[in-house]
Design goal:
The chain is α/β, with parallel strands linked by helices. 33% of the residues lie in helices and 27% in strands.
């Protein structure tokens, strides 16, 4: 089937909140160059970096106008010179900035096959959220069976992924959420204990749940007060993995506190692994597919919006009221 000459793409025309920043434009359909894959996008998982990109607050700041969207699922529409192992029609997931469009060109190492039994909507969030959680728990924190894992924002996309992967690794999971409704989501994901932020004292609740031991591993995509609470309940030789700052507040770390309590603070920016060690990303993807096929992980989708209403998905995500993933369906 020949490719269309043009396609629709959402572009950030000016910086601001997604509803004001995004414009649905008709642009030329891209063509894959050497080492690249052209993906016919089926679904895009909304991510907080998309909101930050629209605001101009992300660590990467593309030149205006640009296409946001950092992960998608779809089918291979074409491959460039030198690409082996992928062919037209393959069902895949892919990650790069610029996939909120009907077609996207992605470097081949960032494209991975998915099982036929997995829907494109469910698979759309398998890359950023689950890869981030996998690398945080296994690569950075080296989590071990039986350890206590504290997950902040445990009902969100990346937080729920961390809960599920923590349970799959044999950890005992404590989830922190923002409401009773979200508490049920965290429990369904596998959290043995749930703390409601703003109502419960996080540090005291963790100490009580662990019999005074504290959290061996902390997964923190929130920052701010969540990070400070973690430092008060992290265990001896515990590891706090900093994922991001969804609270909007970057906390200050007191080095002397890490010394007297004997814990470590580890940073994780998953994109650097895809850039520098794509072989490790491929290994993580293979493990995630195995866990998906055995039912150990199950992507949580809050709701799906059609491509024409993509700004609504990012606005909903920015509100903090969603659970799991909000997915933009581009093509069936």
């Amino acid at each position: 089937m020949p490719l269309p000459d043009t396609m629709r793409a959402w572009r950030v025309a000016r910086l601001g909140e997604p509803a004001e920043a995004l414009s649905l434009d008709v642009v030329d359909t891209p063509q894959p160059g050497p080492g690249e894959v052209l993906v016919r996008v089926g679904a895009v998982a909304a991510n907080f970096p998309d909101v930050l990109l629209a605001r101009g607050q992300y660590q990467v700041r593309p030149e205006l106008p640009f296409v946001p969207g950092v992960e998608c699922s779809g089918t291979v529409a074409g491959v460039g010179e030198g690409v082996d192992g992928l062919a037209a029609g393959d069902r895949v997931v892919a990650a790069k900035i610029g996939v909120l469009a009907e077609y996207a060109v992605v470097q081949a190492p960032a494209v991975h096959r998915i099982p036929d039994a997995v829907s494109l909507v469910a698979a759309s969030g398998l890359t950023i959220a689950y890869q981030t959680a996998w690398f945080a728990l296994h690569r950075r924190a080296a989590i071990r069976p039986g350890e206590w894992l504290l997950v902040h924002a445990a009902a969100g996309g990346v937080g729920a992924a961390a809960v599920q992967l923590g349970v799959a690794a044999g950890a005992r999971v404590i989830g922190v959420v923002g409401s009773d409704a979200k508490a049920e989501v965290a429990r369904a994901a596998g959290a043995a204990h749930v703390v409601v932020r703003g109502r419960d004292d996080i540090a005291a609740s963790v100490k009580q749940a662990t019999g005074g031991h504290g959290a061996d591993v902390v997964f923190d995509p929130v920052g701010g007060d969540a990070f400070q609470a973690s430092t008060r309940c992290v265990a001896f030789e515990g590891r706090i993995v900093v994922i991001g700052f969804a609270s909007g507040e970057i906390p200050t770390l007191t080095a002397s506190h890490t010394l007297v309590k004997n814990y470590g603070v580890l940073g994780l920016y998953w994109g650097l692994y895809q850039e520098r060690f794509p072989d490790l990303v491929a290994e993580a993807h293979a493990d995630l597919v195995r866990l998906l096929e055995t039912g150990a992980i199950d992507p949580i989708v809050d709701h799906v919006v059609p491509f024409e209403r993509a700004p609504e998905a990012l606005t909903a995500l920015a509100s903090g009221a969603t659970v799991g993933r909000v997915v933009i369906e581009v093509a069936g």
